[in-house]
Amino acid sequence: MREMGERGGRPAESRANDSPAGAVGVGGGRARRLRGESARPGFLRSRAPWRAAAYLLVSGSAGLLLCALLLVAGVAAGALAALLVGLPLLAALALVGVPYAAWERRLLRLLDGTRVPDPHLVPDRPGLPAWLRLRFREQATWRELGFTVLAAVVLWPIDLVVAGCALVVPGHLLAALPLLLLDGEQVNVLKLWQVHSPATAALLGAAGIALLPLLAYPLTVVAAGRAALVRMVLGPGAQEERIGELVNSRARLVDAFEAERRRVERDLHDGAQQRLVALTMTLGLARLDAEPGGPLADRLAEAHRQAGEVLSELRELINGIHPRVLADRGLPDACADVADRSPIPVTTRFDLPGRLPAPVESAGYFAVSEALANIAKHSGAGSAGVEARYAGGRLTIEVTDDGCGGADPAAGTGLTGLADRVAVVDGRLALSSPPGGPTLLRVEIPCTPISP
């Protein structure tokens, strides 16, 4: 099999969302705004300090749990490594950063409502092996692993200490007087000193009231700094940003190209074709009025014949730009129409759940059209077959013939351009054509049905 149209994976969410570069820029701006909020007069009355405290408490608690899980998993994998049972567990530990990084990216919404795009790519084939191969090759996977180790060893104590100091210390000071009144004799404040006087306890409470808003400022700054670290490490890198922008721009170009094709097809169908039909009818009526056998009748007959040929060529041109049956009836009927017009017998079999996205149907249709045209011109085949099915989130089209084989994409048969057209919709084209035949052309396009 010769693979054409090879390409890497696609960004997981870049098709459905904004470009990663823009999202990261917005996230960085929000982090700066969050740090800047601490300088505003209404900062203490806003929800920013409480959001920062909740963010640090949740992230610190998750980091503590992560540390315990990594210790247990590491000890178990090391103990079982001698029996080769722990090797898969060690390999799985290398991917522990993928789910934890996804959790960290979602946790940022608790702080400032921003969203960090997923930097990972989508595998070009379904299944766990393809997913694992792609993940182990991505730089984002190893960045996430490094951040996970950092969170499990360094970050969670900082998070809990900062959040604890900002909340626990003022809370203990505020509770000194009530606890002393309940006990009647003494109260231990922060486990550091004993207070026996209600006046001293009241002073400590006042200090707690004053300390609580003061600690909100460093608390928010630390939370904003941690969020900036998450965006920098776990967000898309420069390469992922470029890939995401290229994919998004390519998707926009595909949509614009398909819209322009449909516009040209509609203008030709409703404009020039109708005028040619009217001209042909007028010439036919003029032939009826002309004297039979005269020079005028001969010229009208020739003009009528040429107008009919031009109309046929225009219809073929319109059908080549974007066939109306494809837009109205879908891929099976459009390919059946191509098969009916083929000079050699073609059998078709389709097993599709419904209509597919317009770019996918267009790419599949032109793949079948080009393949059948090549079979008719170059293969010397006596019959051909077209089979299409949808499974595993992919449209697979196979075109076969019993010809002489030996098809070469570099020989100018249009297969290179066809591979480029299929690659635009993230598809792949494979060709098997040994000398003597048979020839098999396979097209695979990932897609999701849009209607039953």
Automatic annotation (TrEMBL):
Transmembrane segments: 52-73, 79-103, 145-169, 201-224
Top-tier EC class: transferase
Residue ranges with Basic and acidic residues bias: 1-16
Region of interest (Disordered), residue spans: 1-33
Putative sensor domain segment(s): 55-234
Gene3D superfamilies xref list: 1.20.5.1930, Histidine kinase-like ATPase, C-terminal domain
Domain Signal transduction histidine kinase subgroup 3 dimerisation and phosphoacceptor, residue spans: 260-326
InterPro entries associated with the record: HATPase_C_sf, Put_sensor_dom, Sensor_HK_TwoCompSys, Sig_transdc_His_kin_sub3_dim/P
EC number from the UniProt entry: 2.7.13.3
Pfam families the UniProt entry points to: HisKA_3, Sensor
Catalyzed reaction equations: ATP + protein L-histidine = ADP + protein N-phospho-L-histidine
Keyword vocabulary terms for this entry: ATP-binding, Kinase, Membrane, Nucleotide-binding, Phosphoprotein, Transferase, Transmembrane, Transmembrane helix, Two-component regulatory system
Name of the protein in its database record: histidine kinase
Source species of the chain: Kitasatospora aburaviensis
